[in-house]
C-alpha cells in the first residue's frame, strides 16, 4: 500500500464485544481506517460490495452466511477486497478451504489483539498472514502439495487456469457454471477439461471429477 494512503477495513463478527475490541485497536493506528461493521455474513458482503474496502476481517462462523461463504462469493465475483478470517479454531479443513477461496489472512481470535494490525497490513499488501501458532498447518499443506506434484504424473504440467478449473470441478461445478464463474465460454472450459484429462492420463466420463474430488485438498 502507498505510504500516504490509509488501509480501509470492514469488520464482520457477530460478537459485539470482540468487534469493539478490534475496532479500538484499529482506530489507534493512523495507517488504517474502519469504513464499516457487520454482525452477519449478508451484511458483510453488502459492505464489501458497497465500500470496496482494502481488507475485510470475517468471522468464520457468522449467522446468515459464514465467513467462508462470503469469501466464496467475493472470489466468484472477482471483487478486489482482500480477506482475512478470524476464527476460534485451528481446524485444518477450514484453513485449507479458506486458502482455496483466496483468503490471505487466517488469524486466531485468541491472538487477535496482538496480531490484528500486522495481519491487516500484510494482507493489504497482497501477502499471506497466518497466526504463527498455526503455521504448522501451512507447512503440512505445502508438504502434501509437493508430495502430490512428485507422485501424480502430469499435475505439475497444469497451467494456473487449469488448476483453477480443476478446483471448481472438485467443487462439483458444471462446465456451464465454471464458464460463468470465470467469464469464459463453455467451449473454452470443455477444451481445458480435455487438456487437463490428457495431462493427467485420465479417460472416461467421470474420471476427471473423481480425480478432482479425491485430490481436492492438494490443489
Provide the fold topology.
Elements: E1 7-12, H1 16-27, E2 32-38, H2 41-51, E3 55-59, H3 67-76, E4 82-87, H4 92-100, E5 105-108, H5 112-124, E6 129-130, H6 135-151, H7 160-170, H8 175-182, H9 186-200, H10 207-214
Parallel strand pairs: 1-2, 1-3, 3-4, 4-5, 5-6
Helix pairs in contact: 1-5, 2-3, 7-9, 7-10, 8-9
Characterise the protein shown here:
It is a single chain. This protein is 52% helix and 14% strand. It has 219 residues and is an alpha/beta fold. Strands 2-1-3-4-5-6 form a six-stranded parallel sheet, sandwiched between helices. α3 (67-76) links the parallel β3 (55-59) and β4 (82-87). α1 (16-27) crosses α5, α2 runs parallel beside α3 and α7 (160-170) packs across α10.
Question: Could you provide a short overview of the structure?
Answer:
This protein has 219 residues and is an alpha/beta fold. The chain has helices spanning 16-27, 41-51, 67-76, 92-100, 112-124, 135-151, 160-170, 175-182, 186-200, 207-214, and strands at residues 7-12, 32-38, 55-59, 82-87, 105-108, 129-130. Helices cover 52% and strands 14% of the residues.
**Count of runs of 4 or more consecutive helical residues:** 10
Structural class: alpha/beta
Task: Give the CA-CA distance, first to last residue.
Answer: 29 Å
Major beta sheet, strand line-up: 2-1-3-4-5-6
Mean pLDDT score:
88
The run of helices and strands is EHEHEHEHEHEHHHHH
Low-confidence stretches: none
Q: How would a crystallographer describe the biggest sheet?
A: 6 strands, parallel
Strand content: 5-15%
Rg estimate, integer Å:
19 Å
Shape: elongated
| Amount of helix | 40-55%
- Number of separate strands: 6
